[in-house]
Amino acid sequence: MNAVTTHAIEVAALRSDRFRMDREADWQRLEAIVTRMEKGRLRGISDDDLLALPGLYRTVASSLSIARETSLDAATLSYLEALVQRAWFVVYGPRSSLTEWLRTFLGGGWSAAVRAIGLDIVVALAVMVAGVAVGWLLVSHDPEWYFSLMSREMAGPRVPGASAQALRGTLFGDAKQDGMSVFAAQLFSNNAQVSILAFALGFAFGIPTLLLLVHNLALLGAMAWLYNGAGLLPDFAGWISVHGTTELFAILLAGAAGLHIGRALAFPGDRPVLQATAEAGRRSAVVMTGVVLMLVVAALLEGFARQLVDDTFGRFAIGGFMLAAWCAYFFAFRGNAGRRR
Fold first, then answer.
1. Whole-model pTM?
2. Domains held by the chain: number
3. Suppose 232 and one of 44, 83, 227, 246 were both cysteines; which one would form an S-S bond, judging by CB atoms 3.0 to 4.6 Å apart?
């Protein structure tokens, strides 16, 4: 029995050695190329090696598959698995670092993607304005609609019939440190969820996205009606503008991104539906990456700027500056994309 076992081990070792000898030259060549590329020494790689790289990767991947099927020694398997993994990142992995990606993204990629969905932005903006008007008209005819749009818990002291003094206290002074901060956090959380859903529901030809935008902005219209009745509409607009110009802009872009996908599904044009949808999806994904960034900026403005600035003019100044900055970046700035064209 021992002799049989010893013979089997010797045969397996011989088979493993022969397998390695037949293919080791390709393994070593691939490893040398990958090592140079990992260290950034691209100039030291010949044109022949670069052209051979994909073929070498496939060859070594095939060797790994054979090694697994024939149960070769663990050392060979481990070596091949590590080499294939390293080569995969070189052949198929990302070609730029995070810093380079950010430079490309902020240097024109994001703004170019936003301009590419310009028609959808116009449609989403019209729907959002209509939503504000719907909310205002509904509660002006029947104040009970106010609680259909906003829960009583979220509303707090901001309810129809509240005195002007009570409503003013939610915008200025010590009240901003407690109740209004909680309300603002709830409002931000709601708007972040709306942004994500507006994009995610775009696959249904954009119809749920439109309904979501109307419903969410109807809440803003209802609140505007409430503060207008107390003569505080400019103060409310100033309070909301600090973070709202960024936050609402993010909702606008998220809704437009969802509509862009829905429009590609409904009207693919001369392209196949899958191709049109894939292109729209990639473009919208770039826009949504920026939307996340805008929501983070809005949270910072809401957490600091709105708390520190306690007068309407200052709040309008901050909100107006942010709106102008976003518009300039999206519609005037070309950056790297413009230079490449």
1. 0.70
2. 2
3. 227
